Amino acid sequence: MSNRVYFYCSDFAGLPDDDKDFDAFSDASGIEYEASYTIPLFWLALFSAGDITLAKQNDLDEEDRKYAYLFGDKAAGVERLRALSPAMRTALGARRFALYEEWTGRIAAEPFQHMLVRTVELDWMDDEGELERQLRAAFDDLEYARQTGELRLGDAIRNLISVSAGESLEQIEGFRLAGSANASEEWPPRLTPPPPPSASEPVKKKSRWLFWLR
Predict the structure, then answer these.
(1) What is the C-alpha separation between 160 and 41, in angstroms, rounded?
(2) How far apart are CA 67 and CA 53, in angstroms?
(3) Within 13 A of 188's CA, how many CA atoms are on the CB side?
(4) Which of 76, 92, 108, 206 counts the most CB atoms within 10 A of its CB?
(5) Which of 65, 88, 213, 69 is CA-nearest to residue 148?
(6) CA dihedral sign of residues 157, 161, 167, 171
(7) Cβ distance 211 to 36 under 8 Å?
(8) Model confidence over 64-108: pLDDT tens digits?
(9) Which residues fall in a compositionally biased region of kind Pro residues (predicted)?
(10) Which residues contact 195 (CB under 8 A, 6 or more apart)?
(11) Between 130-148 and 85-109, two packed helices, what is the crossing angle to 10 degrees?
């Protein structure tokens, strides 16, 4: 089972308690986006260090452990996306920058006040406090990109978005940048054509997810 991370726009004020609040949260929220083992780059681009919030970890034996999740104002997030556009245009290339613009439009159109990334399963993968540390370093890189127009990817942000030092953002598949919408209409579209099957091998059904191997 993979460690899932989820993004929502919502009018629910904060992080839902799965036992008490999740029905109300679902009713007050828009499209659910999902990723495995990562916080996709386009999600991070919506937030800043001021949106990092700590919650008690209720799913482990360590009673006092806390973890970092993201909760912020949606309108401010859309402005951050737009401010990052020059840096993203250079870093992503034409096709993936078009996807970034589509992502900006999708979030701007969501009729909700807040935005939330649920990270509890991601926190299970590291020591207490490590997720918060990596988020703060990642937001430093994104703020630098807003100020200079240059997107530099340090070790922390590469770890969070699951992009190795040898990978180019211009080549990776769309769901690794934006997650995947849990909706009737599949999104994002495929950006890289699948390789043709070998004449000597049967065609196999592709998995929807390419899991990041740590």
Answers:
(1) 8
(2) 8
(3) 25
(4) 92
(5) 88
(6) negative
(7) yes
(8) 789 999 999 999 999 999 999 999 999 999 999 999 999 999 999
(9) 190-199
(10) none
(11) 110
Q: In the numeric block, which tokens belong to residue 107?
A: 């979030």
**What type of residue is 76?**
A
